C-alpha cells in the first residue's frame, strides 16, 4: 500500500480528509439551544475504496477529532438510515451544515429514499428505551433528568409529524418555550407523561393514514453507494 493509503487508514485522518457531509446536531439544530449547550457534530466520511481491499477494513465509525464529534462511514450510515435509525435520519435534516461535497449533496438528495413506515417502529422503540431510563430516575431520585425528558418529547413530536406528513423536521421551534420549560423542571412529571401519551396517540393516528411508503428505496441508495465506491477506486 502506498503512503497516502496508509495515512488515510488512520481513523481521524478519514474524518479530516474524507468527510463528505458534516453538520451540527443536538439542541443547536433543534432550536432548543441555551448558553450552556454543547456543539454536537455529526459527519459522514467516504473511506477510499482501496482500503477495503485489505483484511483490516476501515472503521464503520469514528469519534473525534473534536469534542462531541461522531462520524459514520458512508455505507454504515446508509445501512442505519435504511433501518430508519432516528439519530441518523435526523442528521440528514440538520439546518446547520458545516461541510458538503458533491457526494454529500447526492446523499442529501436521497433523504426521501430513506424514509418509510419503518420509522414508526424505530422511533417508537428508541423512545420507549429513553422513557424507561426516565422512569428509573423518577423511582430512584423522585424526578427525571429534565433535559433528557425535553429531548424525548421533541423526538416524539418529530415522529408524530413524520408519520402525519411524510416529512422529517428537526426544528422544534413551535414548541420551544414549552420544551424549555420541561428542561427547567417547570412541568411536573405527571404533566410530561400526559404530553407523551398524547403524542403517542397522535403517532398511532398518523400511522393509520401515513403517506410514507412501506419500505425505503433501497435500490436507489445502493446505486448511489456503488457509484461512490467506484469513483473512489479510480
How would you describe what is shown here?
This protein has two domains: 3-113 and 217-233, Beta Polymerase, domain 2, CATH 3.30.460; 118-208, no CATH class. Helix content is 57%, strand content 11%. It contains twelve helices and five strands. Helix 9 packs antiparallel against helix 10 (176-183). 33% of the residues are buried. The model is unreliable at 1-5 (pLDDT under 50).
> Strands across the major sheet, in which order?
3-4-2-1-5
Protein structure class: alpha+beta
Oligomer, anyone? single chain
CATH architecture classification name of the largest domain: 2-Layer Sandwich
Largest pleated sheet: 5 strands, mixed
Tell me the count of domains: 2
Tell me, rounded to a whole number, the average pLDDT: 94
CATH topology group of the largest domain: Beta Polymerase, domain 2
- Rg, rounded, reads 19 Å
Features:
single chain; 234 residues; alpha+beta; Beta Polymerase, domain 2; 5 strands; disordered N terminus
Amino acid at each position: 500500500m502506498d503512503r497516502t493509503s496508509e495515512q488515510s487508514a488512520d481513523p481521524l485522518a478519514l474524518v479530516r480528509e474524507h468527510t463528505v457531509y458534516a453538520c451540527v446536531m443536538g439542541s443547536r439544530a433543534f432550536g432548543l439551544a441555551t448558553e450552556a449547550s454543547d456543539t454536537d457534530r455529526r459527519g459522514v466520511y467516504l473511506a477510499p475504496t482501496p482500503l477495503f481491499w485489505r483484511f483490516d477494513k476501515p472503521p464503520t465509525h469514528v469519534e473525534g477529532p473534536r469534542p462531541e464529534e461522531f462520524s459514520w462511514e458512508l455505507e454504515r450510515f446508509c445501512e442505519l438510515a435504511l433501518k430508519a435509525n432516528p439519530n441518523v435520519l435526523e442528521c440528514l435534516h440538520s439546518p446547520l451544515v458545516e461541510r458538503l461535497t458533491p457526494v454529500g449533496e447526492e446523499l442529501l438528495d436521497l433523504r426521501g429514499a430513506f424514509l418509510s413506515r419503518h420509522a414508526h417502529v424505530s422511533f417508537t422503540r428508541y423512545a420507549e428505551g429513553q422513557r424507561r431510563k426516565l422512569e428509573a430516575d423518577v423511582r430512584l431520585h423522585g424526578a427525571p433528568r429534565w433535559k433528557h425528558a425535553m429531548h424525548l418529547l421533541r423526538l416524539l413530536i418529530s415522529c408524530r409529524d413524520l408519520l402525519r406528513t411524510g416529512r422529517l423536521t428537526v426544528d422544534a421551534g413551535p414548541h420551544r418555550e414549552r420544551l424549555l420549560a420541561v428542561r427547567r423542571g417547570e412541568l411536573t412529571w405527571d404533566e410530561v407523561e400526559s404530553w407523551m401519551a398524547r403524542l403517542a396517540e397522535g403517532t398511532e393516528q398518523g400511522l393509520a393514514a401515513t403517506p410514507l411508503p412501506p419500505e425505503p428505496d433501497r435500490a436507489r441508495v445502493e446505486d448511489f453507494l456503488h457509484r461512490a465506491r467506484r469513483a473512489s477506486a479510480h
